[in-house]
Design a protein that fits this description.
homodimer, Arc Repressor Mutant, subunit A, Aspartate Aminotransferase, domain 2, 8-stranded mixed beta sheet
């Protein structure tokens, strides 16, 4: 414990950067670096160790993303207060011993400052480039303020940047004319519901995944697209045979082919084509809710339905809620070549106007144009991959509680044998200061569907996440162990 | 013409500021000051004339608001390009001689650069304090970006500033807890429609003014509040007796008591009380769309319904669309003390989240907190009062085309004998590059209701407005003169 904190071994097989991260992490975990301690400047540490300064910057960034360091502009970087949870990261620590018989106080469980929210849908903003963010808004605030609404489909500049972004990030060849700016996915779904209603000349029928995104379903129902019909989901995603069998034929189906929400399946290309074939034959629209495909951890992302669509039936719905933050309320719809749908959407927007402030559209266009969004996705993706590994390490191999849904995105599913048991785990965790969602919340048929927990792992820094995951594992194992013995 | 441009006469009855404005305006109109000419700095002109610098600043500001001067930050103030329309402002000029027999080219008619939009709903942003605007956004961009949505009813800070604003501007005593932040009036109406639907447990019935705000009516219909029932409007506003007679009793009525949209009536206090009495007796809500009460030109504004409401039935809907710009997409709902409505609104917002970007809420809170909004309203009010005088001067006294609706707000109504004639005037004006709305667009009963034009006068600078109004008068008089002779 008395040797130097950092020893760089150039003969070691692991890269310099990894050695730096590992050395600093160990120093923090074994207490040689204390919360609040400033770390050396990147310049001086680089000189001392004889490594490139960029390696030190990258190491500090990674540790900040993991929650070990606190970076503040204009102040020295310091060790973050991990306190009670430092030990959570010690390698090889077994979790069995921590299963609480009675619930510990929330603050102790969740990492020392209040509850920890592991419900899905919360990305991390720790990597956000503050300088680029501020500069985008500064620029936007310099645009002359018109005394009129933004154009119905959004500011031209933003529509054009979104089209570029989708070409690069998703391989979707669309033009700015195809893009409609929205205040996030709820707004997109509401807009489509209104348009479908106008086109149907009555109450349209929209098929939805079961289990699936509950708030999209309720938005549809609220907006007069009264009939939502549940379609079962298997390990790959929506069951197209079941969709085909629905009578009357739905006006549209809403799907999450990249990463089924919440179960995590990825729709194979053949099934995607079958889905589009059904849409073409039946005159229905396929609405792809592409909510997190930027974060694919295993395998490459499959093409968006819009890029396979030849008949003008695929509508792409996306947002910057996971990519940046849902605080922005900014998303988009990419319309297919379908004059009826375009006219119906235009009629709604002429009346209700684009709900996104013009200035926010200008700022978002700058964030895309300067590459800040692309860089942020790359940085966040590394953090999320790391947290996903941590989740796999902490929650794998629980008997009776299989882990799934982790090939992409920012959440995982822990299967459980019953809804009642899942509800007990959720309640127990809430009492211990860890919020998770029951899988039953996603059911489109009351009382039916798989049981388990849905956990978002993107937002908390590693150290707090690890502590919380151990609490989750303990709660799951505790409740599983209390089940009546099986006699067979 | 060769004397000094500005002579300040301290014995003159008119105030110094008015003499300054008058002198400069005359100089521009008679061509001694040419488009593009820089005017002296406020400091040097003040010294030269021996007046306070603030008087010169105020005079320049007024002339900029009227469209005679162009103010740009960091550049000298210059004479604006009025060109073809300078003469429009010459006092006492009669309009008869300019009535075009055939439509002149749009550019000539509308002021030298493209069409002029006199459809209502477009405020002027010429007075916007750019420094305060930029500073508000700079501040907002410094707020730490959360990885989560804003709270369902909006950011606390903004709700609190809106409550303060309403206390001062409208005498509405509400708490921040009563305020729900919205993306403008359409979003507010959609939110209320969803809540009413949930409360009614079916299709609610909402009474609307006829004629009235067409897009609010369509938003209601689109959001499943399927049944909108028209209620006639008289010179004062909604006809409460007609409302009382509707069976089944509506779940809500939507009204514009400050300045009936579009006819311009102001609901007397006694009628306001009768309306609230009806609401209390029938368990209905009264939704007050308070879209422009900040700009009252004649008489004092009457109290908002919310401030008269004792039974928890009055809902106040407002926005910063007229006060600042609809480009902002920012508004609010003030909820009455009614647990059922609050719960229903909360349920919708929990699901769909607050559609206003958190950063826009922060910026708006700053604009309110620093007094920038209050100052902007005061400055804009002076401009609008001036433009209203101009409109009265240009459009009063047309036989068969009475002018009305001008006691408050930013638009006027020109009555016309028939829809067909109004349609011809609208088309003729469009061909001449001046856009106005036919009154028939506001009808809630197809083919019924008064005929005429609705003109927004807030947005164009005075010189362009005067030119356009003369084109309007000529078109109206031309079409009126083409009517078949009356034989009686």
């Amino acid at each position: 414990m008395d040797g130097p904190l950092l020893v760089i071994d150039r003969d070691d097989a692991s890269p310099l950067g990894a050695q730096l991260v590992e050395g600093l992490r160990r120093g923090i975990l074994d207490g040689r670096l204390q919360a609040g301690d400033p770390v050396p400047s990147t310049r001086s540490l680089a000189t001392e160790l004889g490594v490139a300064r960029s390696s030190v910057v990258a190491a500090y960034e990674q540790l900040a993303g993991e929650g070990y360091l606190e970076v503040r502009q204009g102040a020295p970087t310091r060790v973050a207060p991990l306190a009670a949870h430092a030990s959570a990261m010690a390698p090889g620590r077994s979790v069995e011993s921590v299963a609480p018989e009675s619930a510990p106080a929330p603050s102790a469980a969740a990492g020392g400052d209040g509850e920890l929210d592991l419900r899905p849908g919360r990305p991390s903003t720790a990597r956000l480039d503050e300088r680029a963010w501020r500069s985008a808004w500064r620029h936007a605030a310099r645009v002359a303020v018109p005394g009129d609404t933004a154009p119905p489909f959004g500011e031209r500049r933003l529509r054009s940047e979104i089209a570029d972004h989708l070409r690069h990030a998703r391989g979707v060849a669309c033009s700015p004319d195809d893009v409609v700016v929205t205040a996030g996915t709820s707004d997109a779904v509401a807009l489509l519901a209104s348009a479908l209603r106008a086109m149907a000349g009555g109450t349209p029928v929209v098929a939805v995944e079961h289990p699936g995104y509950p708030s999209a379903r309720r938005v549809l129902e609220r907006r007069g697209a009264l009939l939502t019909v549940p379609v079962p989901v298997d390990a790959d995603g929506i069951d197209v045979a079941a969709l085909r069998a629905i009578r009357p034929t739905p006006d549209a189906v809403m799907v999450t082919p990249s990463h089924q929400y919440p179960l995590g399946g990825r729709l194979p290309v053949a099934t995607r084509l079958a889905l589009l074939e059904w849409a073409e034959a039946s005159g229905a629209f396929v609405i792809e809710d592409d909510y997190d495909s930027e974060f694919r951890h295993v395998g490459t992302p499959l093409p968006a339905l819009a890029s396979l669509d030849r008949a003008g039936r695929a509508v792409l719905v996306g947002s910057f809620s996971k990519v940046l933050t849902p605080w922005l309320r900014l998303g988009y719809v990419v319309l297919p070549a379908n004059a009826g749908l375009r006219d119906a959407i235009a009629a709604v927007r002429e009346d209700e106007t684009c709900p996104v402030p013009g200035i926010a559209q200008e700022a978002m266009a700058s964030l895309l144009a300067t590459g800040a969004v692309r860089r942020h996705i790359a940085a966040a993706r590394r953090d999320y991959a790391h947290r996903r590994e941590l989740l796999l390490a902490e929650l794998s191999g629980m008997d009776g509680a299989p882990l799934s849904g982790l090939d992409g995105g920012l959440h995982a599913v822990v299967g459980l044998p019953s809804r009642a048991l899942a509800a007990r785990v959720v309640a127990r965790l809430a009492a211990e200061g860890v919020l998770v969602s029951p899988l039953s919340d996603y059911s489109a048929i009351a009382g039916e569907g798989p049981s388990g927990l849905v956990l978002g792992y993107a937002s908390p820094p590693d150290a707090r996440l690890a502590g919380a995951l151990r609490v989750v594992r303990a709660a799951v194992e505790h409740e599983l162990s209390r089940r009546p013995h099986r006699w067979v």
